[in-house]
Amino acid sequence: MSGTYPGQVLLLLLLVFICQMVAVWGQECPGTPELQNSLRQAHKLLSAHEASYMQSLRTLRKKLSLLQNSAARLPTKANNVTCPKLDAPLNGRKLGKVLLPGHEVHFLCDLGYELVGSETRQCKESLSWSGQQPVCREVNECASSPCANGGTCTDEVNGFTCECAKGWAGSTCQAPTPTFFVTVTNTSAATTGAAAATSFPLETPSLFVRPSKCSQVQGTTHCTCEAGYTISGRDTSICMDIDECELFHNGQAGRLCLHACVNTPGGYRCTCPEGYNVTRDGRSCKDIDECSTRQNNCSRDQLCVNTYGGFQCVKMECPRIRNATYVKTSPTRCERNPCAVDNKACSQAPNSVSHHYMSVVSNLSAPRVMFRVSAVRVLGDTLRFALLGSRGRRHFTVQRSDRQTGQLLLVSPIQGPATLDVEVEMSELERRVVIGRYITKITLFVSQYDF
Asked: Can you give the residue ranges of the EGF-like domain (predicted)?
């Protein structure tokens, strides 16, 4: 509005000048009162414009003072523009190296340990971390009392062993130990009241055949065999090996071996598939962690993921989306670079893409929560979780557990071996308009075994 004042003043002054010229030429012009009135109006307009101009100068001077004060404080803050460095928990790992505000750091625990504390921590504008520093606590497998029939449980990293009471065997002391004996009655008068020990030599020695040990007491002959052998038919002098694998491997009391049973003279032994070791009890199988023991051939730019019975070398690549670029902020996370104001295609691309790798056994029971996605802070008024297209999508669904958390749910067992990819999208909305998208890609490596 103040811009109109100079134009009005010039018009009035021009009018006065024209009138003076007309008077010189002898033409009619407005009278003196009209000219004086016009000059008074011009004076008022000039005064109003001058006041407005002075007010604008005072406002500009205040803004300059504020900017100068802000600039004076910048050097003290520039010395520390990152959050403090976070250490990885003992028996765990830390993912993420960027310590700038808005960036996240993720924590994982080694196999056999559970995370206590914040799984994700974000660097806040105040240059402090959200959440609490996590620790990796060893999982106590003996807490559920897995050893049956009076067995004693010993907790181990990522497992347990059972020391069974007498008469019981198996990985959880679930199988009774077989006992064999035979009693033969001899009514011969020559042996009545006598006690003697008799040995019966074998004509053809064999590891699977042993002689019995017999004794006679008051006319009764007692013959026994070594552990793992039994009397062969009517011939009490011969003990034959018991095939425990055939008789008891899949018995009602439980399996002798978790995987495969091999009969041996007087006993048996359990074997495990490649990628597993036999546990201390000799019956169960324990996965070999090729990643932590460096029994893998993954290159430096690859991430080693331990699986049941093996390992996988994976290399995470940031997405290539037109009109948007991404930078890798951790071995498993990519974040979108800032978009130009007029680049709508860029603003509609995902803000971040995270990769997670999970190892599961075959035919895992369902329903079961497999993964949780949550927002550290919410800028909008609504969060929406969705399951995107993926291999094996029929096995999963996504449901909300609270306002800021969605969870991936396994709804049907998966027969291994198999590798499935599933994507969970978390969208942030403000008045039903999407203001941010976050993609979590989960890869499941399913073992061919159920252990």
From this structure: 138-174
Alpha carbons 358 and 360: distance in angstroms, whole number? 7
Yes or no: say if 103 and 117 are a contact pair by the CB < 8 Å rule.
no
Q: Are 199 and 236 in contact (CB under 8 A)?
A: no
Amino acid at 438: Y
Structure tokens at 254: 């439980």
Enter the DSSP assignment of 126.
T
Q: How far is CA 116 from the centre of its chain?
A: 14
Contact 317, 307 (CB under 8 A): no
Q: Cα dihedral angle (88, 93, 95, 100), rounded to 10 degrees?
A: 0
d(CA 439, CA 355): 9
Q: How far is residue 70's CA from residue 75's CA, in Å, rounded to a whole number?
A: 10
Q: Which residues contact 153 (CB under 8 A, 6 or more apart)?
A: 141, 142, 145, 146, 147, 160, 161, 162
DSSP 143: G
Non-local CB neighbours of 216 within 8 Å, separated by 6+ positions: 186, 191, 194, 195, 196, 197, 198, 222
Nearest Cα residue to 137 out of 203, 188, 96, 90: 90
How far apart are the C-alpha atoms of 151 and 148, rounded to whole Å?
Answer: 6
Q: To 10 degrees, the CA torsion angle through 61, 62, 66, 72?
A: 40
Residues listed for the chain: 451
From first to last of its 451 residues, the chain has per-residue pLDDT tens of 444 455 555 555 656 555 555 554 455 566 677 777 877 787 777 777 777 788 888 888 888 888 887 776 654 444 568 899 889 999 888 888 888 888 888 888 887 788 888 888 889 888 899 988 899 988 888 887 888 888 888 887 667 788 888 767 767 776 665 444 444 444 343 333 333 444 444 444 467 888 888 888 777 888 889 888 888 777 778 888 888 888 876 655 567 888 999 999 888 899 999 999 999 888 899 999 999 988 899 998 899 999 999 999 999 999 988 889 999 999 899 999 999 888 888 988 999 999 999 999 999 988 889 999 988 777 778 889 999 876 677 899 998 888 888 999 999 999 989 999 999 999 998 888 888 999 999 999 999 999 9
Token pair, residue 140, equals 């106590």
